[in-house]
Amino acid sequence: MPSTYAYKDEESLRDQLILILEPHFEISTTGETFNKSGKTDILMRYETSNVFVAECLWWDGPKKYMDKIDQLLGYLTWRDSKTAVVCFVGRKDFSNVLGQINEITQQHPCHVGPIAVIDETWHNYAFHLPNDPGRIIKLATLTFHLPRDDTP
Question: What is the CATH classification number for the domain harbouring 18?
Answer without folding.
Answer: 3.90.1570
